[in-house]
Amino acid sequence: MNLMDTKPVTAADYASDQEVRWCPGCGDYAILKVVKNVLAEIARPRDEVVFVSGIGCAARFPYYLSTYGFHTIHGRAAAVATGVKLANPGLDVWVIGGDGDFMSIGGNHTLHALRRNVDLNMLLFNNAIYGLTKGQSSPTSPIGTRSPTTPNGSVEQPVNALAFALGAGAKFVARGADTLQTHLPTVLKRAHENKGASFVEILQNCIVYADGAFGAINDRSESHNATIRLEHGQPMIFGKEEDKGLVWNEKAQEFRAVALADTPEQQLAVHDETNIQRAFALARLEQPDFPVALGVLYASDAPEYAHARGFTAKRKPFDREALKSLL
Amino acid sequence: MNLMDTKPVTAADYASDQEVRWCPGCGDYAILKVVKNVLAEIARPRDEVVFVSGIGCAARFPYYLSTYGFHTIHGRAAAVATGVKLANPGLDVWVIGGDGDFMSIGGNHTLHALRRNVDLNMLLFNNAIYGLTKGQSSPTSPIGTRSPTTPNGSVEQPVNALAFALGAGAKFVARGADTLQTHLPTVLKRAHENKGASFVEILQNCIVYADGAFGAINDRSESHNATIRLEHGQPMIFGKEEDKGLVWNEKAQEFRAVALADTPEQQLAVHDETNIQRAFALARLEQPDFPVALGVLYASDAPEYAHARGFTAKRKPFDREALKSLL
Amino acid sequence: MTTIIDTRPASGAPATVVRFAGDSGDGIQLAGHEFAKSTADAQADFMTFPDYPAEIRAPQGTLFGVSAFQIQFGADDVLTPGDEADVLVAFNPAALITNLQHLKQGGLLVVDESHFDARGLKKAGIESNPLEDGSLGAHQLIRIDIVKRTLEALVSFGLGRKQATRAKNFWALGLVYWLFGRELKSTEAWLEQKFAKDPLTAKANIAALRAGHAHGETMEIAAFADIAGPARPNTAQKAKIISGAHAMALGIAAVAALAERDVLYCSYPITPASSLLHALARLEGGVKTFQAEDEIASACAAIGASYAGSIGITASSGPGLALKTEALGLALTAELPLIAIDVQRAGPSTGMPTKPEQSDLQMAIFGRHGESPLPVLAPSTPADCFSIMVEAAQIAVEAMTPVIVLSDAYLANAASDWIPPDVGALPGIVIPAQDFNGDFQPYARDDATLARPWVPPGTPGLAHRIGGIEKESGSGNISYDPGNHAEMTRLRAEKIDRIAARRPAVELDIACEDADLLVIGWGSTWGAITQAVAELNEEGQKIAHLHLRQLWPLPRGLEELIAKFPVTVTAELNTGQLAALLRSEYLAPIKSISQVTGQPFRVSDLKRNLLARLEN
Amino acid sequence: MTTIIDTRPASGAPATVVRFAGDSGDGIQLAGHEFAKSTADAQADFMTFPDYPAEIRAPQGTLFGVSAFQIQFGADDVLTPGDEADVLVAFNPAALITNLQHLKQGGLLVVDESHFDARGLKKAGIESNPLEDGSLGAHQLIRIDIVKRTLEALVSFGLGRKQATRAKNFWALGLVYWLFGRELKSTEAWLEQKFAKDPLTAKANIAALRAGHAHGETMEIAAFADIAGPARPNTAQKAKIISGAHAMALGIAAVAALAERDVLYCSYPITPASSLLHALARLEGGVKTFQAEDEIASACAAIGASYAGSIGITASSGPGLALKTEALGLALTAELPLIAIDVQRAGPSTGMPTKPEQSDLQMAIFGRHGESPLPVLAPSTPADCFSIMVEAAQIAVEAMTPVIVLSDAYLANAASDWIPPDVGALPGIVIPAQDFNGDFQPYARDDATLARPWVPPGTPGLAHRIGGIEKESGSGNISYDPGNHAEMTRLRAEKIDRIAARRPAVELDIACEDADLLVIGWGSTWGAITQAVAELNEEGQKIAHLHLRQLWPLPRGLEELIAKFPVTVTAELNTGQLAALLRSEYLAPIKSISQVTGQPFRVSDLKRNLLARLEN
Ligand SMILES: Cc1ncc(C[n+]2csc(CCOP(=O)(O)OP(=O)(O)O)c2C)c(N)n1
Ligand SMILES: Cc1ncc(C[n+]2csc(CCOP(=O)(O)OP(=O)(O)O)c2C)c(N)n1
Ligand code: SF4
Ligand code: SF4
Ligand SMILES: [Mg+2]
Ligand SMILES: [Mg+2]
């Protein structure tokens, strides 16, 4: 296989010839841009990269990339991608879906891909709404969301995608936001490096049906006050002026947000991405009382599924001789 | 409605006329016995109690009770039960299923019933195997399980049902074991009292396909060394001789098992069933290093779904007058 | 002065087709809807069809952002939104070039020329300006800079350019009102009410409307004669404009009222079925709604509701019904009343989600494992979507069976005038009395209907267990007995067959006893087929039309009826699924006129095809 | 001395049916399997069928804990496990009363009387002892206290009572070996090998076997003549005993070897399909297996695998295939090769999971939304389960389509003798060459097959995107164009139709050109129908038999063939689903002999029904 001539160099090389058809101002554009940049940095030949998606606005993603792409059916991308990976573990497989795709109809496949630790880069574009079907509330919509199906405001407790992933046994759990164009690539690169299922929730603004669902988080200028960028081994500091921090309250087993002015730095919690308990607490931090945790919340090594099954390149192909011995 | 004459008094009144057909020695018998006792204690008329199940050995449960019962299809019991509850919130609805039913094919419905907090008593009979279909490994089977589908031992990381439930947003999470005939009723009664989705994992021995999967846990005489019975507000003590305890290691964010002889009682962790962080740690305690946590791991108040939707007895019935005003 | 050609259809009844097309942000659907209302006020008959863009919100001015609205109206029965437009109003280059195909040769073309600059043309992906290059020669072109005129009309309001421009749809509507001699009053009243909190906007829109109307008067074109229908029988009651989706939602509400039972409507969003859930959610509690996590859960929750004594209804489109296949088998063998609605769209797989097709018929009838017969109904018109729900519910509770109702993307979105029924006069949905005299068996059957009793949990003294494993006839206990299974299979099938005996026998929609051809349709194609056959018959042909609303069990008398005609053909938006069914049932050599384009039938195409069949 | 009546079937070829029945813990299946092996060694033809209890492990001695094994063997072709047993060996009261119905009038009944005490009778729920009350009068009863005899025979081994008793199945087997003049050697050798690590057990079982055999010699009954078949063509090769499930698993392995591609076999456990997954998992890597979280995931993972260049296979039973409906639509429109196996069981819903039925045919052919044709095949015999997989794979890769294979619970469990094919001589599965000359289009089609190219990710230079939305012919880009959709719909259908042209034309299984009746069957009923028709023809009737292995597209020549016979009837384990299909396709007045009892056809019932058709 001569892959040299297909080797891409720039982000633009990862663009397909299809016209991008999200609504003007949709957060998906920003994610697409980041993904193309990250792919260019990773620099794997386009032919070895596959994007598998379900159905939804997010799920159109594969059409806009020059890699292999499979736009499947609603909710089943993780299952299809599992088959892709088991068939050819050498491929670089990305799974794209919205909150409906991953957390509603596809919840079961998300769970099982995570617990099996299939080597997939799973990007959940969470816009807290069903975009493509015109704005119904989704399992991540906050209580009170008014939508065509919840005209008086939804009453269902939303699922916290990262808490769910941790409960499901995910070994790599991270969060980013569409507009954070310098932060998001770092998260995606880490996800890509992780061997096994990498679960990344990307907070994505649906400008038409749920504009501002994440408040200041993906407002670039305000974002630092509404989020905390976690870094392994670093104290938990946030705020535009880096003037706030998180302290761990041992008794209540929860974080407390503090002003650095009042708190000595050594009292601040230090991020340990290998600690699942802390990750569970971080995943559940919510606005307005807390900054929303971004970055790699949890990462831990575990055998990747295809590999654990022995489906490696070294696997002896089955042939007529082998068949003969069976019959 | 005259319910007086159907009011049952003893556990036997909750038995149906059907011959019980589990394998001799199956843990399901013990659970059935406990449930009948608990029903007799609750003493709701049989006619107001419904057991909905999926398919599996566990799912045969409704046939053996004299209440209403619906043996549905594999994995969908929670969804059917949600419909039952929304249609008639006055019913006392129990959902029964195995680990295949609840955590494999039905994982998505488990997730959503929990996050919506539908007022269901959901009892997962976890035997870490597919019983009815003759012994395939299940999503709760430990790594290394040899089964007809994993002849060399399974490699999939099992899902921890209670960690999953907590990640899914469950408001009541508890664990019991089939043979613990004095402990299990207390758990079921608490589950029944809770308004909202009550998730109870019952460790159940499948004597045919996964005998001893839970080791000493459901061996009545050894169980106290292998489990810890949590009580709200009480220090975490376990062991046949009540000679061991759990200490919370704040730095590592995990429990440590200690001998009481070496540890002053005030160092022991105290169970707080309202603390979700602690519940997450407790849910993940595993043999042999730790006792498995039994009892109510987590309980917190939250609006019950049918109620939050306004589907109460007070709901005004829709009639011709109302229809007229629409047309 | 340009003279407008007479565009009335050959069939006699004068009917006119108007189409509005513009960017999705231009308020096309709103203007169209107002025009339909004024048509209703004029007592005319009409049918409308929106043509939404596939994209949620495409960039302004692009081809894929074009939204259109078509209405056909006339004094007599109007059965379709029309094949081709007599009048097309286009708001930008993209709207013009994508919609020109819908304009009749020589039709009137009103174009807002304000966006026909280099930028506008580029957005539409064209180089040459169609207004200049002679490509519109076949039509009667009226160029107006509508934006400019609107701004002029609103200059006194002190609005920003952007806000003022927004009124351009009302300016155009005013012009069209003038073309058809319509009154402005009711639209004005509606604007005042709608913008009660923002009187400036109300006034501005009214001013634009009047300005457009006034412009018509000054234009050198002949106005169309307005088409007014005969006064309605009940003149007190205004006709409503009702889409199939809305009618179906009201029908579901009617089920609750007429059965005196709660309805639990369970669904997972999917185009084109979502609008039902939206409409029901807005009804505020008339019907309980449940947005499930997926289609399987939506079917199962509906089953749970039916089990618990409510009427469970679940709805989706093809991909969703496919997912409900297993659950429907449970409802069928548990013998619970349930309605499953499939608003069909073009398949297979994701297919073309916004486009109609009738290709789920075989799945509805045959698409379950095991021997699993159940009734299948299909409404014929938007208004029929109301009645069909009541009928489906009656069948479901009477025979204790799931019922599938097949609508489609066309029927859901098409709208026509509708005089709501007199609620007081509607017969109730009769739930068979449950009377056991101490001898209750969950699978004992009614002698006439073969239905088992419906005894929901909560009923005192009758607690029992049911499930999806084969059940002993009578007791309902699990049974693997070979003879019992054969008997239960027979009973389940006969129970469905007997529904036909209680339902009306077939009756021709267009009777023509000595016809040379019988055309059989079903579902949303009623209007187009009726129109085509009526026109052909007026032209001297002899064609009978039968439209099936009940697809399984097939209605009484169908075999005999088919035998009366020398040739029978079905007309379907699929590859002949009904034809295959009828061939198998009656061994009649039925062929089909089939179309699988994701579009409803055009009357003209149907006529051509029917003629071809007559010639064979 | 009792003389055994000659039990050979009327059709000529001598064949005998033996049935073993006992508690599930009694080692019935093992004894049966050994008997089958000795039958194979005798070069006789045979067919076996296990009759497992529904319960996992019922209490000993109860009715629902009875396990049985039936074998028919003869010198000539043996096509079914037999309607009725000539010899029944029953190990306890429950086994006797549940299995007596399977014993021929006057047949030989060997009963272990050791459990016919009050306790044993009570467990079986009977009051009177059938050995004493004269109820067995119609049969030739041999009462032996087998337990006692076994214990006596093993007394020198010093085993505990419980352990020694376990050898009773071999004692009984020894007796049956004597009845049929069989050699003990190979079973002895097998026992030595099996218990190589536990020679005491091996020896004890051998001693029991010999004791049973010796007992026969001392018994005053005439032994049956042994039935040996003609020497096999290749005497070097021993016949294997193969069940349909095992043959299918080997067929799947063969797909990998013959296509030189990995197979990913994806499934979720379900009776009676699980045994396939078990068998494949044991093959250790010949085929990759994946136990998915549910059936939808199993179908989707198989689709993913096919997309990635492996051959994706997914299997389930009816409820599972129902759940895969939507996913199959994706495979179909993405045009990927895939095999979906449905091991049918009695439905609807959960139905009777362990019982065979052929009632998923219509779901397989019609059960998808949209216009969704795909090929459907069905194997006829256990051995055919091997070949059908290879054929299905060839079709799938050649036409780039999912293929459904319909097996059933009978075929999966029935076993017969099988001489494996010569692997070297098997033709390869040909994957069309992918040769684009720089002009690659994902939806360009091969002129002959209309298949699109299979270009998995990883292929250099050809990255492209596919999906479930309608695609532009050629480019594969999303298209909502009406004409394109019509064309793609046509192409997808014609692609499937053309498969028939490349496949063999129909050929009668039992040719009888001037027959009065043609009976058409499909799937697992081949043996019973062939046997019934052969016997009737020997009795002077004229009946032709056609067995369809290819159910969609229907094979070439079928219409013409049907036209040759005055009457055509199908014989199916459903309510006539194939008949309905043929009626619709050919407008031929085909009726059906149908049975929906969860049981395979009995030859005698079929004969009776066929005769009735001839009389009409
Ligand atoms: C089986 C099935 N059910 C439902 C749909 C309709 N549908 C398409 S996308 C979607 C959800 C979209 O929401 P999300 O996944 O959050 O993606 P977004 O559009 O917000 O990016 C739904 C319900 C479908 N295509 N298929
Ligand atoms: C749709 C469907 N898929 C698969 C099955 C087969 N099946 C029945 S029960 C079961 C799993 C049993 O395991 P579990 O739920 O853990 O219950 P247990 O028998 O162990 O109590 C399976 C796979 C089915 N009946 N329906
Ligand atoms: S609807 Fe929302 S998510 Fe979808 S493209 Fe538009 S802005 Fe983006
Ligand atoms: S198989 Fe296991 S779970 Fe099922 S009844 Fe037997 S012992 Fe119980
Ligand atoms: Mg979304
Ligand atoms: Mg289990």
Q: By helix and strand content of chain C, what is the structural category?
A: alpha/beta
What is the CATH fold-level name of the largest domain in chain C? Pyruvate-ferredoxin Oxidoreductase, domain 3
The largest sheet of chain C is: 8 strands, mixed
Shape of chain A: globular
Q: For the residues shown, what is the average pLDDT of chain A?
A: 95
Sheet with most strands of chain A: 8 strands, mixed
What's the quaternary structure here? Answer: heterotetramer
Helices of chain A, by number, come to 10
Provide the CATH topology of the largest domain in chain A.
Answer: Rossmann fold
- Which of globular, elongated, flat, extended, rod-shaped describes the shape of chain C? globular
Bound molecules: thiamine diphosphate, iron/sulfur cluster, magnesium ion
Tell me the CATH architecture of the largest domain in chain A: 3-Layer(aba) Sandwich
Number of strands of chain A: 11
Q: Fraction of residues of chain A in helices?
A: 25-40%
Name the CATH class of the largest domain in chain A.
Alpha Beta
Overall description:
The complex is a heterotetramer, with two copies of chain A (327 residues) and two copies of chain C (616 residues). Chain A is an alpha/beta fold and 327 residues long. Chain A folds into two domains: 4-234 and 272-325, Rossmann fold, CATH 3.40.50; 236-270, no CATH class. Chain A has ten helices and eleven strands. Chain A has an eight-stranded mixed β-sheet with strand order 2-1-3-4-6-5-11-7, sandwiched between helices. Chain A is globular. In chain C, the strands form three sheets. In chain C, strands 6-5-4-1-3-2-14-7 form an eight-stranded mixed β-sheet, with helices on both faces. Chain C is globular and about 85 Å long. The two termini of chain C are 47 Å apart. Chains in contact: A-B, A-C, A-D, B-C, B-D, C-D. At the C-D interface, helix 12, helix 13, helix 16 and helix 19 of C face helix 12, helix 13, helix 14, helix 17 and helix 20 of D. Strand 2 of chain B pairs parallel with strand 15 of chain C. One magnesium ion binds at residues 56, 98-100, 127, 129-131, 138 of chain A.
